[in-house]
Amino acid sequence: MTTPAFVAGVDLGGTKILAAIVDETGAIRSRNKMPSVSAKSDQRPGPELIADRIALAVQEAAAAAGLGLADLAAVGASAPGPVNVHSGEVLGAVNLPGWEKPFPLGPELSTRLHGLPVAVDNDVNLGVWGEVMYGAGRGLRDVVGIFIGTGIGGGVVLGGELRHGVRWSAGEIGHMSMHCRGMQADVEAFASRGAISRQMHKALAKRKTRILARIVGEREKAGKGAGITSSVIKQALAAGDPTTVQAVAQSQQIVALLIASIVNLLDPECVILGGGLVESLGDLYVAPVRRQAYAHFFLQQDVERVQIVTAALGDDAVVLGAAALARARFGKATQPG
Fold first, then answer.
1. Nearest to 203 by CA among 250, 243, 251, 246
2. Segments forming the whole domain that contains residue 244
3. Cα dihedral: 62, 64, 66, 72 (round 10)
4. Greater pLDDT, 100 or 195
């Protein structure tokens, strides 16, 4: 019997589900995006409801590609928390309502999808795997990914394999501890987009920044809200807002030191920087990080052999990584190259 050529990849986020149908070459044939929880639902939020929504998203993505479930070889799905990749159990997803306890997402999805095999892994792991299979790390075997958004996530690929750790929590780079300005906290508390936004909000509250106040005021008048998004950070940085310049510089310095520490431990071929902040600022963020990281490598010979690059796949990284995981686990694997 011929194995179907298509697999589905699913990116489960805090507010949305993105499902995609992917062919053997890694090309996305269709996408379907929906809220993680339906506004019309009267069901209690929790993993059972989310599993229902994921199954629906996969079915609708398949239909959009002119396919049925029988045309799919397997499904790969991400989860925003630690995952036992052997059993498909998500140990917890605290940023999703009602999901505080372990839940067997893989088996439950398989049941809802009429027995299709389902592989599950952590969302950032799959984002990094997507970049290794189809993006900035293609053809490489030792890669570390750092994704900077509201928090900071990471994933580690060594010898061409994702590393999960004995408790399924390897790669939690944003939760490495550090001291900064007399405080001890996780790296993401000092260097994430969320950390930058908090500093900018404090400056606004104290009326210390006219440039930022003008930018936020204009956005409010345009109906875009008063939130400090990555695009606001980019705009304020370009306008020379002192608070923003200082906050971004602090983030760059901390991420550079983080990369240097990881390289001194693992000496990978490549470090990939991604996430909303990096996607928005691009080389304006990455170039200073690269320069400062190289300066702190213990071994100073051939520092540029460790590539420090920007992620290439954007919002498609996780679904492509999930699809590649499903194909490798249950169908014909496509190797990096």
1. 243
2. 143-312
3. -10
4. 195
